[in-house]
Amino acid sequence: MSYDSGENSDAEKKYNAKEKYLYEILEDYQFSDHKEEIFEAFINSLWECPNKRLTITKYIKFRVLPELSPCDTGRIFQNYQSIPYRSYRNSTTEKNYVDLIRQKINNLYSIRCDPDICTEKEYMNLLKTPKRLYYLWRKGEEIPSANELSEHISHCMEEAECIRKLSAKSKLKLSWSEYQELISEFLCKIFDNYIPLEAFEKKEELYLDVDIWLEDHFIIRYICKSLDGYMSNYIKNYYGIRRGRNVKIQRCSCGGLFLQNKKNNRFKCNLCNKYQPIETKVITCISCGKQIELKGIVKNKKRCNDCQKSYNRKIKTEKQRIYRTRQ
Asked: What is the pTM of this model?
């Protein structure tokens, strides 16, 4: 175990996690009385890593040939030559354990928490519809007519937007600082549950070529898989879903998750399945057409206050006229 020597006392000694292999840090953590200090040094190296999370705008591009542009079909494809979508950097060229683990942490946040990023396969397939149809058309294969093509592509773009919005609703509402605290909790559990490679080989009867598979590779894999598992369990707890085998989990229209029943006829999560009173609503005055905001409990109001006063005055005047004519 290595510490930076202090000038005055042992209290000033700090654990040095730099230039150490990952397995050495975990071994020091297991057999040390200063576990918090070792873990803090490791976690600080992750958050200080220059491999920051990066989101970018990508484009699905294709080019309509000039000789195909004048026709109606070509003009339709020209409107979709560059379709933007939000993405993220999901890999790193660095090979050290700090960058690799930090990249995994960045990817988890982008997939699970960033509402601007949609990783649904169906979403990407819908965005690629114009490009796919264009190359089919250019090869001479049959595609819908110009009017049908325009409607079909517009429908695909609208459907893709619906999927993106649903994906945004399903993301965890965690800021980066809250996410860091959550990941720190996960990593602390991972450190506590770590089994050295020698013990794992003996327990699982697994034999590895140490010249190819270093122990740090094993630990990085272990940490990344554990982060996936802990995050999945956290999401289930977040939506109040019990964990277990042979359970069918589906997504509600609000983005939440719910446990499907045996009859397979449930369509809403626990929150949407309950009565949710309307706090406010907007109605249109039937007299002047003005938009007015009311409390959700109000049911019979049809006019704004000014129009209602005028209406009440007219009703009162009419009643008085009828009363006088009867006398």
From this structure: 0.72
